[in-house]
């Protein structure tokens, strides 16, 4: 297998095009996963898809009344973005906290589901980037036994991410796997370009990071999670992350080893589901760990250009020991052509 560097210790930003590490077999990758389990931050990796240019879905958006279906209108206003917590990732640009203002906007109650993405593909014939590249990243424990011998590449700094040929949103663990029993789960193996194409078709857009974080806070000020500061209030799981020993033992005490239905767990104060955990969600911004120190404080949109796009919210693979990024202020990024089994999105819309 070949290896790929990522910006996040857990490989939450496993990206395309970096140096892959060849391995002889899936078993070798699994043992490599253990060896690397003590490493932390890697370098972000940049790769643009050379052929990406004119590939937006061309179908007209389903604008008008249905653009609001399944969305919540948020009033906007001033809020405290980021965090001053010490137990965070300074290099990610989470802090210092600052006052930011956003205009009113609509946002989806849930991440875009497989059923919704299927409707988009049925209507437009859209072909995702994972299909164009011919592969996507699957977390090693989910790769079916029969496919394991054919896996030839893993992410160098996060060898639990395997490059599996034939993987895309409809076959999320490779050829022969299916979304049939996961139609209400978030669509995954969706690149930023794919997410943007869907949003355009739906008459929507991706949220800015500021909008996303404002929405995730659910009206609370400066809390760690969308529901407060405690991860499991009264012992109750409030989001889908990892319990156990990453990356080998997933105890799934919250009920889910992989994705959970998009509408699971209690929603936050704004009625939004799974802002923390489940799948990482693409934002419209180019990522910068510095922009927030000097950028706009009213409707910030991120730096004008960059190499990677911002992701928020963490995923079912996040664990405090390894990727404590299921907090509201946490952030990561990935190249806009990258896709994995734990990255999805939800849409926003102007009022
Ligand atoms: Ca879980
Ligand atoms: Ca999420």
UniProtKB/TrEMBL annotation:
Highest taxon above the source species: Bacteria
InterPro entries recorded for this chain?
A: CTDL_fold, Sulfatase_Mod_Factor_Kinase, SUMF_dom, SUMF_sf
Q: Output the SUPFAM superfamilies linked to this UniProt entry.
A: C-type lectin-like
Q: Which residues form the Sulfatase-modifying factor enzyme-like domain?
A: 70-348
Pfam families in alphabetical order: FGE-sulfatase (PF03781)
Q: What is this protein called?
A: Formylglycine-generating enzyme family protein
């Amino acid at each position: 297998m070949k290896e790929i560097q990522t910006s996040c210790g857990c490989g939450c930003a496993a990206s395309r095009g970096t140096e892959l590490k060849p391995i002889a077999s899936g078993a070798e990758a699994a043992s490599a996963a253990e060896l690397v389990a003590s490493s932390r931050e890697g370098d972000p990796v940049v790769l643009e898809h050379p052929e990406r240019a004119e590939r937006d879905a061309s179908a007209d958006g389903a604008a008008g009344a249905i653009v609001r279906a399944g969305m919540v209108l948020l009033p906007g206003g001033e809020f405290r973005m980021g965090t001053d917590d010490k137990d965070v990732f300074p290099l990610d640009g989470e802090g210092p906290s600052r006052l930011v203002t956003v205009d009113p906007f609509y946002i989806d109650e849930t991440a875009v589901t497989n059923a919704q993405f299927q409707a988009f593909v049925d209507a437009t014939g859209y072909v995702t980037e994972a299909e164009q590249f011919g592969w996507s990243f699957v977390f090693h424990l989910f790769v079916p036994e029969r496919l394991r011998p054919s896996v030839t590449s893993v992410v160098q700094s996060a060898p639990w991410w395997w490059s599996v040929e034939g993987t895309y949103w409809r076959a999320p663990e490779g050829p022969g796997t299916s979304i049939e029993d996961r139609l209400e789960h978030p669509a995954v193996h969706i690149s930023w370009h794919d997410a943007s194409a869907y949003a355009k078709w739906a008459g929507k857009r991706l949220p800015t990071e500021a909008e996303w974080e404002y929405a995730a806070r659910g009206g609370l000020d400066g809390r760690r999670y969308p529901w407060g500061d405690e991860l499991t209030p009264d012992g109750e799981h409030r989001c889908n992350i990892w319990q156990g020993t990453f990356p080998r033992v997933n105890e799934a005490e919250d009920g889910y080893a992989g994705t959970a239905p998009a509408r699971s767990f209690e929603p936050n104060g704004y009625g939004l589901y799974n802002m923390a955990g489940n799948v990482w969600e693409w934002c419209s911004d180019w990522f910068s760990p510095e922009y927030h120190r000097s950028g706009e404080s009213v409707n910030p949109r991120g730096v004008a250009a960059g190499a990677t796009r911002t992701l928020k919210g963490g995923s079912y693979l996040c664990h405090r020991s390894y990727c404590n990024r299921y907090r509201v202020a946490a952030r990561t990024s990935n190249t806009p052509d990258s896709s994995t089994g734990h990255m999805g999105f939800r849409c926003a819309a102007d009022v």
